[in-house]
Design goal:
Shape: elongated
Number of strands: 2
Largest sheet: 2 strands, antiparallel
Structural class: mainly alpha
Oligomer: single chain
Strand order of the largest sheet: 1-2
Radius of gyration: 41 Å
Order of helices and strands: HHHHHHHHHEEHHHHH
Distance between the termini: 124 Å
Helix content: 55-70%
Length: about 300
């Protein structure tokens, strides 16, 4: 004969099963009611992760909102900004490896912090950190996008540069020492090969080389030593070739006067004695001839 202990050992417990005995509770109906309760609860607001440098300035913001513009309002505003400056310093650390000085980055982040303080509305119920940090990050990104390119590059090319640069960094971390190809960068960044090539080429416009940079293969030489300069002789060649047909149309005496004045270096008095006219006539002929040649060049331009 089975004992109660044997029966309990063979029969599984009834945890989670429905009981039909009087006074028992239907577990399934309880689960349904719990689901309904959860659905009726309002969604939780996102609370940003707090850091040691995140101050509690909620009372100061509520006070600031009630104050009229004046000395007291300015004092409370500056107090809030000073309290949040350590957070601005933390935000700038994300961008410390982009070639910009820490002081400049902190100044840009502080500008974003001031904008966040001036536009924050505590009545909306959101923590100031969830508004201030994106504002500062956006200000820093805008600074890099608009002010640090050596050449003016359309925003589309700047975005391609960012995507290809990040893809190249990831590939370099995955395969150290191997130079990524354009195809690999395109696949990594989700771009076409043409777009990837454009983004990689845009990198050349991000930072201009220093004129004091050394020239590879030329010891003791800097970039400024090998740079070309404007050669005025090219303009002189163009002017002479343009004047040839105009000079050929001049009367012989005017050609002689030009030759003696500009190629032989004679004075007007010397030219007048050479061709048998007065110095005043030589002056008028030179002025009229030069005006005629100038009008001819402008007409051909």
């Amino acid at each position: 004969m089975r004992t109660d202990r044997d029966r309990d050992a063979k029969e599984p417990p009834h945890t989670g099963s429905r009981s039909t005995d009087a006074g028992s509770t239907d577990v399934r109906s309880t689960d349904v009611r719990s689901d309904d309760f959860r659905r009726r609860q309002p969604p939780r607001k996102h609370t940003p992760r707090r850091h040691d440098d995140t101050p509690d300035t909620a009372p100061a913001f509520r006070r600031l909102a009630r104050l009229p513009y004046g000395p007291e309002h300015t004092a409370v505003r500056e107090e809030i900004i000073r309290a949040w400056m350590p957070v601005a310093e933390r935000v700038t650390r994300r961008f410390r490896h982009r070639g910009e000085s820490r002081e400049d980055l902190l100044q840009v982040a502080a500008l974003g912090l001031v904008k966040a303080v001036d536009h924050y509305d505590p009545e909306r119920g959101y923590a100031f950190a969830s508004y201030a940090i994106p504002t500062m990050v956006g200000e820093l990104k805008r600074h890099f996008r608009d002010h640090l390119w050596s050449l003016h590059v359309p925003r589309r090319f700047q975005e391609l540069h960012t995507r290809t640069y990040l893809a190249a960094v990831e590939l370099d971390q995955a395969h150290p020492g191997a130079e990524p190809t354009t195809r690999e960068i395109a696949e990594r960044s989700g771009l076409t090969e043409d777009e990837a090539a454009t983004g990689m080429a845009a990198h050349e416009a991000y930072r201009a080389a220093s004129l004091d940079a050394p020239v590879p293969g030329r010891a003791g030489s800097s970039l400024v030593d090998v740079m070309g300069d404007d050669d005025e002789a090219y303009d002189l060649v163009v002017d002479r070739e343009s004047l040839k047909p105009l000079l050929a149309e001049l009367p012989e005496r005017q050609q002689l006067i030009l030759y003696l004045r500009f190629f032989r270096g004679l004075t007007q008095a010397q030219i007048a004695g050479r061709i048998g006219v007065s110095q005043m006539q030589v002056s008028r002929l030179l002025r009229a001839t030069c005006d005629r040649l100038r009008e001819g060049l402008l007409a051909d331009a």
